Amino acid sequence: MRQYAQSSLPDELLDAGRIDGAGFFRLYWTVALPLFRPALAFLGIFTFIGLWNDYIWPLVVMIDPEKVTLQVALANLNVLYNADYALVMAGALMSVIPLIVVFLIGARHFLRELAAGVMKM
After folding, report:
1. Residues sharing a CB contact under 8 Å with residue 23, sequence separation 6 or more, in sequence order
2. What is the H or E stretch that residue 121 is in?
3. How high is the pLDDT of residue 98?
4. DSSP class of 31
5. Do the Cβ atoms of 77 and 83 come closer than 8 Å?
6. DSSP state for residue 82 in the 8-state scheme
């Protein structure tokens, strides 16, 4: 994020905002944040995907078998010798739906900002 911030925020924009009388928070809100929106969308999407797919930490921390995450429950279903594969596949579909929704919503914003940046050049 630091490297993206240094490369995408020209000093001329900040200087122009300061000349117009904008303070620190106004510069951040009106100049820097719109430029960082694609990177923030990317970071948010992939952080959510990484946290949603986390398996080891919930396996170690969760003591109550009724409160395990969906990924741990799917792994427990799949370990059984006579696993009901229809149930495992239904659970896998249920675990992928939030990822698809978040990715589609976030990718729409990410691609819109990326296309706007290309048009400005």
Report:
1. none
2. none
3. 93
4. I
5. yes
6. T
Encoded amino acid at 119, one letter: M
Distance CA 79, CA 103 (A): 29
The most distant pair of C-alpha atoms in the chain lies apart, rounded to whole Å, by 71
Tokens read off for 19: 């000349």
CA distance 2 to 101: 28
User: CA nearest 8: which of 114, 119, 83?
Assistant: 114
The model carries a pTM of: 0.70
CB 35 within 8 Å of CB 17: no
pLDDT at 94: 92
Please write the tens of the pLDDT for every residue from 83-120.
Answer: 788 888 999 999 999 999 998 888 777 777 666 655 55
pLDDT at 41: 82
Residue 81 tokens read as 């010798």
User: Which tokens sit at 87?
Assistant: 């149930």
Instruction: Locate the domains of the chain by residue range.
Output: 37-120
Per-residue model confidence as pLDDT tens digits over 30-47: 888 888 887 888 888 889
Q: Are 104 and 111 in contact (CB under 8 A)?
A: no
